[in-house]
Task: structure prediction
Amino acid sequence: MLLVGSKVIGMPVLSLHVGGAIARTRTAVIDPEDLKIIAYTLEGPIIKNDPEVGDMLSTDDVREISNSGLIVDSADRFTTREDVIHFDEVMSLGFNLVGLKVVTTDGKKLGKVIDYTLDSGSFMVYQLIVDRPFMSSLIDPELTINRSQIVEIDDYKVTIKHDKAQVKVPKAEKKKAAEEFVPNFTNPFRKPAYTEEESIDDSSSEISE
Result:
């Protein structure tokens, strides 16, 4: 299932062991080599909020992404960049996908990356969502670029093969991509169906301030 990347930021991290939220995602750590989200930095009462030493969640340890949040076994799955050499190497690059300029191989400027979609199973960035320059935006306000069109990525720009493969992304589709989730196991945090007279107690899925 494709999800909009920005919708995963700020999501609760839910522990099967505790039965509720234990943190929230803060930033995505993307490896520019293959555009995979390898981890999320975290924030919350039990997290050291210094991004240099704070706890992180490897995407390999995520059991499921659902409307409730990212589900993990327990906080024991959290790690730090110092514990995983590859995490430290990627974070040291200071790579940020959002904000990069997008150009074609013949030098045509298409805009800049404002978001992306990711595959919820592999955590690979699947598409780039590109904000168009002012004049072009009058016709195509937003475009998507499939990862197969990317030729090169550096600190400043994403170079793609050509712009004919770009398509507009209707807002309804982006909303649908963010809201549709396919679970891969029984999710104990999924809310059951209730009648109108019954209420839902959400206290277990909130992080205490």
Confidence is low (pLDDT under 50) at residues 165-170, 177-184, 193-209. The chain has two domains: 2-95, 101-179. DSSP finds four helices and 14 strands in the chain.
